[in-house]
Specification:
Elements: E1 2-3, H1 13-37, H2 42-50, H3 56-63, E2 70-73, E3 91-98, E4 101-108, H4 119-135, E5 139-145, H5 163-175, E6 180-189, H6 194-197, E7 201-205, E8 210-212, H7 216-223, H8 229-233, H9 235-242, E9 247-249, H10 252-264, H11 289-292, H12 304-307, E10 315-319, E11 327-334, E12 337-344, H13 350-366, E13 370-376, H14 383-387, H15 390-403, E14 408-417, H16 419-423, E15 433-436, E16 441-443, H17 447-464, H18 471-488, H19 491-496, H20 509-520
Parallel strand pairs: 4-5, 5-6, 6-7, 6-8, 7-9, 12-13, 13-14, 14-15, 14-16
Antiparallel strand pairs: 1-10, 2-3, 3-4, 10-11, 11-12
Helix pairs in contact: 4-5, 13-15, 17-18
The protein binds coenzyme A.
Length: 536
């Protein structure tokens, strides 16, 4: 592998301007992240602590091994949604080490709407379980929740990926032999009672933990029976009488110690031995990425400059460097792991799509994880390209990406528009993890193109009726479309809706990827591809 030669001039005015711009975008995200990390309102947090309970993030910090990282998933969920009153959608999810095991942790934040499940809370819980399933991770649920957020029941209860799917996933995870442990450190109400009930082992905290299918008010309304929380579903009832829980803990700290003991008796999983050598740092500094990302994403930049700041020793074995040059493909190492990388250097032409498909096949056949660095405005359009079969070439690449049974990771580093999103392993293509850089943009097409297209459709309609629009009227028509596209294509808008697993600091991309590859090695499909390599 040869070292990538960088042409970035770190002393230029443009570099410095872009660096500053990236830092300010990152700072905005960091401030929001710090606010989100506080959880619910000050009043709700104070009440929670007064009850002798730890906050959700304190619980997680306490249960993790001392040196363990915490790969938080979707911290920006529900940002600026639900009146911006549901930080992290009221649930903290992420991967960390407990007693030496990588574990998916799902913790309700009871300071946010009583830990109840809003639509995005469910989406996030299910995403965490999906990650656990795909990467063969055991799970810990720290339960403190009033169940379904009742006013929005129609968006939470009945559909395929709604509340019921959580318990279905628990059963499926169990069938896969993945340990699931629950700590009931607050309410575990109604359907939510099945979270601890469906775990392998459950700890319940004395005085604060309670599990019931119907709470005291519902029991009173339905049967007229007067019953206290403790009598109905407290720790004593469930560890001594019903058997729904297995261990009674004195308080949160005691419960989390118990959890660590439970995980310490779990035999170590044997991950698949991916091709790995001793890691080495990139030659170029990671923070230089800040100065490489253009302020205006319409301006192209050489994605090799990004690769050079992510991969070991900045070495890259480029595949077909002279062919289909708008897609860069090649092999490199990240944290010692051999990976295949695809990145964009412009719109996708038929030859670049063919090259992309060919390279993905090579990686899939050799069981090499694939990294997609998305900065794509779409496939090339126009008469010549339709005639050259751009749809056919694009379909091959999409097919190769969708069927490559190796861990795939996607980072949105710039634009993510149109079918380019699909070919470069967007969310619909099930990459194991997908992260977004702060300045990245995502939409079906650029705002201007969408506004022009819709205006053209309107003009054509009116023309059929013998009418027309003035230039001013056409501009007025375009304005709200442009504004909507601008608002909806930001990284925060995307992350709030779980179109990704979070917004990350571009300079930390390598760290995220190293952890992600390690996590993915716990589940590698070892069957061979069905066909040999098709040279495209
Ligand atoms: N749906 C919607 N909102 C709910 C809710 C539910 N199921 N349960 C609680 N909330 C809201 C409350 O309205 C309150 O909102 P606010 O902060 O905007 O005022 C917030 O959550 C906190 O509730 P509160 O009762 O003040 O907190 P608490 O810590 O004393 O009790 C619960 C929390 C969850 C134990 C308690 O609210 C409860 O038992 N809720 C009903 C649970 C239930 O029967 N669920 C059935 C769902 S299938």
């Amino acid at each position: 592998m040869a070292k990538i030669e960088s042409f970035v001039d770190t002393s230029s005015g443009l570099y410095k301007k872009q660096y500053k711009q990236s830092i300010s975008a990152l700072e905005k995200i960091s401030i929001i992240r710090t606010e989100i990390a506080e959880g619910g309102s000050e009043k709700a947090r104070a009440l929670h602590k007064k009850r002798g309970k730890l906050l959700a993030r304190e619980r997680i910090a306490l249960v993790l091994d001392e040196e363990s990282p915490f790969l938080e998933i979707a911290p920006f969920a529900a940002y600026d949604i639900y009146d911006n009153k549901a930080p992290s959608a009221g649930i903290i999810t992420g991967i960390g080490k407990i007693s030496g095991h990588l574990v998916m942790i799902v913790a309700n934040d009871a300071t946010v709407k009583g830990g109840t499940y809003l639509p995005l809370t469910i989406k996030k819980h299910i995403r965490a379980q999906k990650i656990a399933m795909e990467n063969h991770l055991p799970c810990l649920y720290i339960v403190d929740s009033g169940g379904v957020f009742l006013p929005l029941q129609e968006d939470i209860f009945p559909d395929k990926e709604h509340f019921g799917n959580i318990f279905y996933n628990q059963a499926r995870l169990s069938k896969e032999g993945l340990l699931q442990v629950a700590v009931v450190a607050g309410a575990s109400t109604a359907g939510g009672a099945y979270v601890p009930a469906m775990c392998d082992q459950t700890v319940i905290v004395k005085n604060t933990g309670a599990i019931f299918i119907g709470g005291p008010p519902l029991v009173k309304a339905a049967t007229g029976e007067d019953v206290t929380v403790e009598e109905l579903g407290g720790a004593d009832v469930h560890t001594r009488i019903s058997g729904v829980a297995d261990y009674m803990a004195e308080d949160d700290e005691d419960a989390l110690i118990k959890v660590r003991e439970i995980f310490s008796s779990l035999p170590q999983d044997k991950p698949y031995q991916l091709d790995r050598i001793k890691p080495s740092d990139p030659v170029y500094k990671a923070d230089e990425i800040y100065g490489i990302i253009p302020t205006d994403l319409k301006k192209p930049f050489d994605s090799r400059e990004i690769i050079a700041r992510i991969v070991d020793s900045s070495k890259f074995d480029e595949f077909k460097p002279l062919y289909g040059r708008t897609i860069v493909t090649g092999f490199a190492r990240i944290g010692g792991y051999l990976v295949g990388i695809l990145s964009n250097n412009g719109v996708i032409f038929p030859d670049s799509a063919d090259k992309g498909a060919h390279f993905v096949e090579l990686c899939a056949d050799r069981k090499i994880p694939i990294l997609f660095l998305q900065n794509i405005t779409g496939f090339m359009i126009g008469k010549a390209y339709e005639r050259a079969g751009i749809a056919r070439a694009g379909a091959k690449m999409i097919n190769a990406v969708a069927t490559a049974d190796v861990p795939r990771f996607t980072i949105m580093i710039g634009n993510s528009y149109g079918a380019g999103n699909y070919a470069m392993c967007g969310r619909g293509y099930n990459p194991r993890f997908l992260w977004t850089w702060p300045a990245a943009k995502i939409a079906v097409m650029g705002g201007q193109q969408a506004a022009d297209t819709l205006a053209q459709v309107k003009v054509n309609q009116l023309k059929r009726a013998g009418k027309s629009l003035t230039d001013e009227e056409i501009d007025e028509l375009k304005k709200p479309i442009l504004a909507d596209y601008e608002r909806q294509s930001s990284s925060l808008y995307s992350s709030a809706r779980l179109w990704d697993d979070g917004i990350i600091d571009p300079a930390k991309t390598r760290e995220y990827l190293m952890l992600a590859i390690e996590i993915s090695s716990h589940n590698i499909d070892q069957s061979r591809q069905r066909y040999g390599i098709f040279r495209m």
